C-alpha cells in the first residue's frame, strides 16, 4: 500500500514537472515568435504600391511621407498612423492603406479636385471643403470666390445659381463675392462688375441680360467701357463707365 502511494506521488509530481516545462516552453516559443513578428528585419515591409489618379502629388512624395519615420514590420505597422502621414500632403484629400501578405503596403490616394479659389489664398474642392495648397498649380481659369469663412457652402451655392443663369446667355463669372450680409457682387470674364445685392438675385440677373444690349450700344457710341452695373434697384440699372484703352 505504501509503495502504491509513493508511485502515485511520483506520477503526480512528474505530471506537474511536465506541465510546468510545457508551459515554460510555450512561453519561450511565444516570446520568440513575438520577437520575429515585431522585427523589421525578419518581416519587413519591402514593397510600397501607390495608386490613384494623381495630378498634383507625385508618387515619390507619398513614399517620402511614409518613410520619413520607421514603417515598422508587416505586423506592427500602424495603418492609421501611416494614413495620417500621407494625408498631411497638401493636395491629398483621403488615403486608404492596406497590408498585403507577405511584405507589401498598398496605398490608394484620392486628391482634392479644386473647383474654385477661396479668399485669394486657398482652394475649394469638389466637396466644398477649403484646403491650402500651391494655388499657382491650379487651373488659372478657376472662379475666384470671396466670402465669410463660415459660409463656404453658401458662397459656392450662390455662385452656381448665378453662373447657371448667366452662362445660358453667354456670360462667365470670373469672381463672386458674398458679403457678411450675404449681398452678392459678381465680376464677369470681360471685367464687368455686377452688383446684385441680397434680394431677388435671379430676377436682377434677368434684368441685366435684358438691358445689356442697350448698355453695349451706349458703350460703342461713347467710346467708353462698362465698369460696373448696379442692379440694386426695383427697376432699371445704374452704369459706371471707364475710359476705353487706346489701341497702340
Automatic annotation (TrEMBL):
GO terms for biological process: cell septum assembly; FtsZ-dependent cytokinesis. It is a single-pass type II membrane protein. The chain crosses the membrane at residues 12-33. It comes from the Bacteria. Residues 43-112 form the POTRA domain. It is found in: Cell inner membrane; Membrane. Its main location: membrane. InterPro entries: Cell_div_FtsQ/DivIB_C (IPR005548), FtsQ (IPR026579), FtsQ_C_sf (IPR045335), POTRA (IPR034746), POTRA_FtsQ_type (IPR013685). The keyword Cell membrane applies. Keywords: Cell cycle, Cell division, Cell inner membrane, Cell membrane, Membrane, Transmembrane, Transmembrane helix. The keyword Membrane applies. GO terms for cellular component: cell division site; plasma membrane. Belongs to the FtsQ/DivIB family. FtsQ subfamily. Part of a complex composed of FtsB, FtsL and FtsQ. HAMAP family: FtsQ_subfam. Essential cell division protein. May link together the upstream cell division proteins, which are predominantly cytoplasmic, with the downstream cell division proteins, which are predominantly periplasmic. May control correct divisome assembly. This is Cell division protein FtsQ. It comes from Idiomarina loihiensis (strain ATCC BAA-735 / DSM 15497 / L2-TR). The gene is ftsQ.
